[in-house]
Input
Amino acid sequence: GRGVGLALTEKFLAAGYRVFAGVRKTYHLLEEVKEEYPAALSLIPLDVTEMASVRAAAARVAAETPALEILINNAGVYLGDKTRPLEELDLEDNHLQQTMEVNAFGPLRVVQQFLPLLAAGRQKIIVNISSEAGSIGDCWRKQEYAYTMSKAALNMQTRILYNYLSPRGFKVKAIHPGWVRTDMGGKEADLDPATSAEGIFRVIQKTITEEPAIKEGGEGIFLDYQGKILRW
Output
C-alpha cells in the first residue's frame, strides 16, 4: 500500500502485468492506482502474520486466476530503536517476536499457500525482499538485533526454498532493495521507491530471460536491486 510495494505495483502494471496487491491497511494510494488500471489490479486483504488471512488471500486470488507467474514477498517492519545497545534492550517486549513474524515467517506462510498457483504458472518465480542487513558475511552492525536477525532468517528461508523448489523449475531470489526513502528507510536514504522498484523489476526480468547459473554455496540467489551478488 506504500513505499517499495506501491512502487512495484505501479511498475508491473505499467509493464502490462495483471497484479494482485496484498495490503494490510493502507488502501488509499492503491485505490488511486486502481482507478488508472481498473481491470489489471486487484486489492487483496492480507496480513502475513495471520494464517487465516493468508489462506483467504490465496483463495481470493485463485478465484480470479488459475496461475501466478511471480510472487513478491515485500511486507516488512522495523520495530524498536536502531541505536539502543544490548544492555538497554527490553527483551520481554513483543518487538522481537513481531519482527520475526512479519519479516521471516510471513513470507513462508505466503509461499506455502500460493505455491499451487505458482506451480501452475510458467515462470514460477519467488522473490523475497530482503536486506543487506541479513548478510552475515558483510555484517558491520553492533545493534539492530531483531531486524537483522529476521532478514538473516529470511535469507536462509530463501536458500531452503531454492533447494526444495528449483528441481521443479522454480526460480527463487532474495533481493536487497537498497536504502530507500520510505517510512522504514527514513528521509536520509539514498533511493526513491520508484528507482528501487525499477531495479527489482529489471532483476526479475533478467531472471525470466537469462537465469544466471547458481554457483556452489548459493551465490547468485541473494542480490541487490542492481543485480549485484551479495554475500550470505
In short: Helices lie at 3-14, 28-36, 51-64, 95-119, 145-165, 193-209. The beta strands are 19-23, 41-45, 70-73, 125-129, 171-176, 222-224. The longest strand covers residues 171-176.
